[in-house]
Amino acid sequence: MTATLLDGKAIAGQIRNELATELHAWTSQHNIQPCLAAVLVGEDPASEIYIRSKRRACERTGLTSQLHRLPEDACQSELQSLIDTLNHDPAVHGILVQLPLPSHFQEPTILDAINPLKDVDAFHPENVGRISQGRPRYLPCTPHGIQQMLHRSGLKTSGKHAVIIGRSDIVGKPMAMMLMNRDSTTGAATANATVTVCHTRTADLPQQTRQADILIAAIGRSRFVTADMVKPGAVVIDVGMNRADEGLSGDVDFDAVKEVAGYITPVPGGVGPLTVAMLLYNTFLAAKIQQAMP
Ligand code: NAP
Q1: CB of 175 closer than 6 A to ligand 1?
Q2: Could you point out which of 12, 98, 109, 265 has its C-alpha 20 to 30 Å from the C-alpha of 151?
């Protein structure tokens, strides 16, 4: 069996086009230009790439973006003061602090300092809490992109067994909450899953992953998921982005797993472009929420 490819690049393009059309009408009506302020500390090459692609996507869709740079040796209070300024700037609707921060920063304190209404990454405890209660304001971009991809590919999660490898605050945990919730931005069919979350202490991981109708790998280990870990016909979503001298690879052994899976995402061109598209979605949503406030 050769799996059907889930083309994240094409689906992200579709979402960006829809956003651009809606955005054009909304900006003409309200005379407000939704704006994303990105904060980059230091010069990590991967972070530079991510920020560049996010800003380029903003431009292509008609959103304004700002880039605020701080040097590698900036201190916690400098970054907090920049966030405070952005929190109070009415022209800024979304704030994104590119992670990871250099190790001397207390990342949770920084993320907590972002105004939850401008928290377009949805990492603030208020926004995370709302997701866990099934009444989200913003959804984290990567899991939301995955839900959009499933929906737009006609794949349902309701009643299915979803197995997630990884329990990070950015991907694994919110993905689990969103899939087990009763509803989603794409309807109940892409929620209501029975969810298993695996991590380094999971006993007999292949035995768990072989139960998955939908297998989501967010591990950060190149080609970790092998064909014998996948149930025939399963939907396999590869979140991994592992950079090495030989190039970018995912967490799934694509060539082997595509012979077993029913559907599979490539790396690159799978989940990554959707993450960026959903950041644009959140920035526009943030502008709409702030515009509607008294
Ligand atoms: P993370 O915070 O490092 O979390 C990795 C998770 O994988 C942890 O929960 C860890 O378990 C688990 N894990 C690691 N080795 C394992 C093993 N041998 N067996 C079972 N579980 C294992 O990573 P992340 O931020 O979620 O990112 C994961 C990957 O996705 C990375 O490659 C990252 O670059 C990529 N990513 C891509 C996008 C995108 O847009 N495509 C977005 C975000 C992240 P423990 O908790 O027990 O340590």
Answers
A1: no
A2: 98
Nearest to 23 by CA among 49, 57, 54: 57
Q: CA 155 to CA 151: how far, in whole Å?
A: 6
Tokens at 80, concatenated: 């907090």
Ligand 1 center to 220 CA (angstroms)? 4
The protein residue whose alpha carbon is closest to atom 18 in ligand 1 is 200
Q: How distant, in Å, are the alpha carbons of 66, 83, 153, 218 from that of 33?
A: 12, 20, 32, 34
220 lines ligand 1 (CB under 6 A): yes
Task: Answer whether 241 contacts ligand 1 (Cβ < 6 A).
Answer: yes
Spacing, Cα 272 to ligand 1 middle (Å): 14
pLDDT tens, N- to C-terminus, the chain (294 residues): 699 999 999 999 999 999 999 999 999 999 999 999 999 999 999 999 999 999 999 999 999 999 999 999 999 999 999 999 999 999 999 999 999 999 999 999 999 999 999 999 999 999 999 999 999 999 999 999 999 999 999 999 999 999 999 999 999 999 999 999 999 999 999 999 999 999 999 999 999 999 999 999 999 999 999 999 999 999 999 999 999 988 999 999 999 999 999 999 999 999 999 999 999 999 999 999 999 998
Which residues are 231's β-sheet partners?
none
Active site residues: 54, 98, 121
User: What are the structural domains, with CATH classification, of the chain?
Assistant: 31-115 (3.40.50.10860), 139-272 (3.40.50.720)
Name the closest-CA residue to atom 48, ligand 1. Answer: 200
0.85 surpassed by pTM:
yes
Is the shortest distance between the CB of 142 and ligand 1 below 6 Å?
yes
Atom of ligand 1 minimally distant from the CA of 224: 18
